[in-house]
Amino acid sequence: MGKMICAGLGPGNPDLMSVKSHRAITSAHHIAYFRKAGRPGQARQIVEGMLRADAIEHAMEYPVTTELPVESAEYNAALAGFYDDWAERLATLVKSEDVVVLCEGDPFFYGSFMHLYERLKDRIEIEVIPGITGASGCWTASGVPMAWGDDVTTILAGTLPEEMLAHHMRQADAFVVMKLGRNLPKVRRALHAAGRFEAAWLVERGTMAGERVTKLTEAGDAKPPYFSVVIVHGNGRRPMKATP
Amino acid sequence: MGKMICAGLGPGNPDLMSVKSHRAITSAHHIAYFRKAGRPGQARQIVEGMLRADAIEHAMEYPVTTELPVESAEYNAALAGFYDDWAERLATLVKSEDVVVLCEGDPFFYGSFMHLYERLKDRIEIEVIPGITGASGCWTASGVPMAWGDDVTTILAGTLPEEMLAHHMRQADAFVVMKLGRNLPKVRRALHAAGRFEAAWLVERGTMAGERVTKLTEAGDAKPPYFSVVIVHGNGRRPMKATP
Questions:
Q1: What pLDDT is stored for residue B239 in this prediction?
Q2: Which residues of chain A lie closer than 8 angstroms to B8, CB-CB?
Q3: Do A15 and B18 touch (CB under 8 A)?
Q4: A157 forms bridges with which residues in the sheet?
Q5: Least buried of A237, B111, B130, B192, by fewest C-beta within 10 Å?
Q6: Which ipTM value was assigned to this complex?
Q7: pLDDT of residue B74
Q8: Average pLDDT, chain B
Q9: What is the predicted pLDDT for the residue at A66?
Q10: Are strands B126-129 and B4-8 parallel, antiparallel or unpaired?
């Protein structure tokens, strides 16, 4: 009987995965990862050059769903079936051998791996290796400390309604907005409504090739790449913060 | 001219630091770290057995401040003087050699290193290597995925006022409370007020020797160790979440 190991990959730069994930990946016989059909896949690209010569790769390709709206019942049924199917296939493999599943960022923090985990956690042994989040990679790339002392830090998805984004942006001392893409104009409006626009940074492809860090006021109107976040740093609620 | 490298150490288990931090630490000639006077120090313990035989260690011992209240002007003056002093000493060293500064967790996320960084960033070259946060280490240890889809995730300090804690606990889908210690009774009251007590977990020494994971309802009244957090996991705002 083998086990499933989910290796958190961190924010994108291969040197930023943990020593433990690196060891699991370089010694794995079976490697599985999610990707869009027809794409190399970000997770697979991060481990390029690290796999054993005899590694067997299992590319878990998301069902083609561009013709279905993301919140439709059909879309969700297709996706649920896809996770069901791969959960069964990997559970069968684990009967005889270990399987390493790659996961960008930190697996338990908005990771697709969680859909396999929920289906299999009571049936097979699963070890999850945490990773540096994409958010950490991006705020480090910004060159400005993120949160001090008693700062309240919030992580938001750009897919949330504008009013709700603005509400949380007002209440947090420091925050990150993920899932930008076509949501960036809405995120800009929410930042304005919350009075935080001037303090916002846009970090594109943080820690990866093509990294770009700009104040949002200077970022222009182009749609950002998938791996982008908006960041507003905290200033510290306590007198302990260094006076610059 | 050398540079300063801040190596994020991750949540405590040495295998969970990044490959890049591991490389910086094992090759460093000068290593600096914070600790309480008379203690080995958590950062130094994590790298035990990893240092070069000829490594020169710089233990930055916090000034003894037990007789001063944490928010007093004297306490903050003592602490500011301590950071000023070490910033100067390390800047002098960096004129001739690289210096690696250790930092538990992720350096830009509530890390003491930020106090050195703010003092030196315009004067010397500084490279910051991110790390897995203690929070990530703890929610991974809990064995339950933390945040799904559009969940709003918030990081709180147990030192915040009770009303403010309860307010943020009501608004977040998923949250972590750090800095527990003597604040745990207050954090419990805030969880009750927010209607989140039944869903709360206590993770002590996550990823480290002596790790303990319990539902808060079953945790008892003992004061938790310094490296402890309270976690409430998100359930997902989107239909994409797997139906368990």
A1: 42
A2: 132
A3: yes
A4: A178
A5: B192
A6: 0.95
A7: 85
A8: 93
A9: 62
A10: parallel
Residue B147, token pair as written in the block: 């945040």
Highest mean pLDDT among A38-42, A67-71, A76-80, B163-167: B163-167
Taken in order A3, B105, B224, B165, is the CA torsion positive or negative?
Answer: negative
**What is the architecture, at CATH level 2, of domain A4-132?**
3-Layer(aba) Sandwich (3.40)
Question: Side chain identity at B168, as an amino acid letter?
Answer: H
Nearest-angstrom CA–CA distance, A50 and A46: 9
Instruction: Provide φ and ψ at B166, rounded to 5°.
Output: -60, -40
Confidence label for A156 from pLDDT (cuts 50, 70 and 90): very high
Residue with tokens 């209440």: A171
Looking at chain B from residue 27 to 66, which residues have their Cβ under 8 Å from any Cβ of chain A? none
Taking the domains of chain B in order of start, what are their residue ranges?
4-132, 135-232
CATH code 2.60.40.1120 for A135-232 = no
Sheet containing strand A212-215, edge to edge, reads A212-215, A201-204, A228-232, A174-178, A153-157, B153-157, B174-178, B228-232, B201-204, B212-215
Write down how long chain A is: 244
Gyration radius of chain B over CA positions:
20
Query: Once rounded to an integer, what is the mean pLDDT over residues A62-78?
Result: 77
Is B129 part of the contact surface with chain A (CB cutoff 8 Å)?
yes
> Do the Cβ atoms of B118 and A145 come closer than 8 Å?
yes
